[in-house]
Amino acid sequence: xxxTNKVTGASTVWQGTQGLLGLLGGTPGYMGAGIGVAVLDxxxxxxxxxxxRVVAHVNLVSDEPAGTGDxxxxxxxxxxxxxxxxxxxxxxxxxxxxxxxxxxxxxxxRVLGATGSGRTSDVIDxxxxxxxxxxxxxxxxxxxxxxxxxxxxxxxxxxxQAVDRAVAAGITVVVSAGNxxxxxxxxxVLGGITxxxxxxxxxxxxxxxxxxxxxxxDDTVAAYSSKGPxxxxxxxxxxxVAPGTSIVSLESQNSYIANNYRQWHIAGSGKNAxxxxxxxxxxxxxxSGGVALLLNAKPSxxxxxxxxxVQMGARFxxxxxxxxxxxxxxxxxxxxxxxxxxxxxxxxxxxTSLLGLSSGATxxxxxxxxxxxxxxxxxxxxxxxxLLDLSALLGGSGxxxxxxxxxxxxxxxxxxxxxxYIVWGNAxxxxxxxYIVWGNxIESPSGQYIVWGNNEFTDSxYIVWGNSMPGGH
Length: 473
Hints:
By secondary structure, the protein is an alpha/beta fold. The protein has helices at about 5, 10-15, 75-85, 120-130, 135, 160-170, 255-260, 280-295, 305-315, 320-325, 330-340, 340-345, 350-355, 370-375, 385-395, 420-425, and strands at about 35-40, 55-60, 105-110, 140-145, 170-175, 190, 205-210, 220, 240-245, 245-250, 265, 275, 360-365, 380-385, 405-410, 450.
């Protein structure tokens, strides 16, 4: 987290900015104070880094006796990434410098059992519980670092429907993309997004490997991170990516993970221990904390406006393309610039100065439209936005036309890039076909064939979703 908070700009948001000559245009620092983040996971154990900010515990695991804590150890690690304080690890390990939003209120909604698995119905109950207690705890964010293989379209998937209900209630739902980016043989997989990460209303997060540096130039989308498009509707997911590899956060004392994977323990003991984990679960928690920072700065933001701000502030990762990295690696300091009214309305601001290193891109791909990939190819799905357009998105309803890649600035480099590379990244160069379709031979430079994901994520070549036929069909 010491590296992550710098890479994502979270520490910059905490500090605030000085205005011209220290007088005009400065912004205060934000740390997520007052924002409730419901962590639907395996529970949150008592830990020094969480002090008294876990304001509620509820256990909805139907197959286990009632009780609190975190017998598995995943939820506590996730909660620390969202909002662990900055002081507990000071004399224990420099690797943990606080969660992304170290002043948030955490709501522990336990939906996964002692082995880290659970029932979809319990997760749905947890989402509905959070909706019902939104006002009580000011729940503005739900963190879902979980998922299962997609078995039906999102419009009929009960878990995706629950996500839609939460978003309609004004709660931003941040969901992991999944860890199905590779087969067991190490072959890259496309189409491995899990449910409810395929829900168009969700803010779906893939994983970045920072390679242990704060220099963004060496960052890559993690090989294990699930890539899009989402099964059935073929919508573009994930929405963004965030650091998720080798993340040091909180350890749950005597939990399954702590007891069985001692090699992941980093430092500390008892209620002040720390361990290292990797996955889109960690990336999702980073973004949940970042959303809390934005909502602390501007509580009126709707879930759609939050998604616009997070996507537009991200730095596009050309090697991964939209289906690998969404609009890019998050930068909450850049996103905060975009939601500050005084900057958007400032006549001295230009698109270039506003963008910085950000992509300035946002999209909403829905089953109704489901055409973002095709429309990017035929160039009807790319719309250039000016500052007034951006102001309308962030100051009004936040409505984003579905099936369109919205780009801020007439000179936005994504607007002139080749469509196949915008969508597929480097994978576009691994095929002789301009249009990548099921059945193409897509071979990486190392001689590996790209696999299309199915429920079993099997190792056969050229898999068509839902089809168990051998390669070549």
